[in-house]
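Fig. S4 source data, part A: sequence.
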Amino acid sequence: MNTLVTGGAGFIGSHLVERLVRDGHQVSIIDNFSNGRRENLAFLGNSNSQVKIHEADVANFDSIKDYFNGVDWVFHLAALADIVPSIKMPHHYFQANVDGTFAVMEAARHANVKRIVYTASSSCYGIPNEYPTLESAPINPAYPYALTKFLGEEIALHWAKVYNLPLISLRLFNVYGPRTRTSGTYGAVFGVFLAQKLAGKPFTVVGDGNQTRDFTFVTDVVNAFVTAAASEISGEVFNVGSGESVSVNELVRLLGGDVTYIPKRPGEPDKTFADITKINSRLNWKPEMSFADGVSIMLENIDYWKTAPVWNEESINEATKEWFHYLK
């Protein structure tokens, strides 16, 4: 297939590119490198005839539309993530996640692509009423990132309906794995903890650490993307999770190290846990990586986080003060 990955230099995107190349597909990448890293594509070597990299902003339709010509599969991963920056800069998130999705859907429509997979977020559920959480659960985004990702999903599904675009939306739960981002933004727990471990600093655990997360390994997520692209189903939403919910205390036990407990933040769920019955029954997809094995792989690749910021209680409090102000 001729495939296109927006955000292909990002954490999940780069793993998807790696899988598509391994499967023998031609791959075009669109990335503006605001979050993505060229180092994430080092596996390609100096030259790779299967891959073309286009540096462009997906929100600019005119700059990206020609890259969709002749494409079979489109994977739309380009987005701005994280909670606190979305509160501080909602206009940037709306432009990237909403306008960007609109431009991608339009480019895909004009190019008559054969398949689109949209990357949605489980943050759209807010703090759910039931666990495991079904795709039919009420939508309750608590901050601009969650809202803009859901609005992007609504655009994608609407384009699938009105313009008959063959599209599936995948709502991802707490994805982790090698190349998890190392940016200066406080957020992803694995990036925070691994940098702290390298620096010999204690892990900053929020609350009592008994909160649980549906940690889903990136190769399982990539497999869900490829499975969705190869299917005949369209206009549907699927949760992508690990099938279990693991406590943060269990994570730090597996990582090994001292712990500092910091105050719980408003707007954070005590639990995330995807009901993956639908994707298992409709797409025959299921996760394969155990959490213990996934953590072991992260530790084997820990040097990736040697340049990441090392957070402590004081710097986290400063970075998340907007959180407490808005999410009461």
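Fig. S4 source data, part B ends here. The chain has two domains: 2-175+215-240, 177-213+243-271+290-326.
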